[in-house]
Fold:
Amino acid sequence: MRLFSCGKCDQVLFFENSTCMNCQQRVGYSVETADLVALPPEDAEGDAGIELVLPGGRQRYDEAVQRHYEQGPPQNGAESYISAYATMHPWEDWAETWAHYLHMVDTLETAKSHGLTVRVPGKGAAAHV
Ligand SMILES: [Zn+2]
Structure:
């Protein structure tokens, strides 16, 4: 298990911590730095639980949902996102990407269970998926 530390008081923190129990600093997991980072004080409508700090910064989820359904996805969204829904908010981008990855793994496992083999050009023996 990886341990983290509070950037304010050096208290040992776990991934599950959303607040330092020693100094009450709010923390979130930064995907960019792979570390727990200090967050600004929670606003009145803040969510409880682990907060992911993704590249692109923080966006209020409820505002992102409203914007997405009012304005739709950005016109160039297909160039950078796996789905239109993934353009809505970094959390949905993360979830949609993992969902697609898991679907691909499921497909390969199903194919393997039915004996599917893949021949790689230039290789003598068949490679099994
Ligand atoms: Zn602390």
Observations:
- The two ends are 31 Å apart (CA to CA).
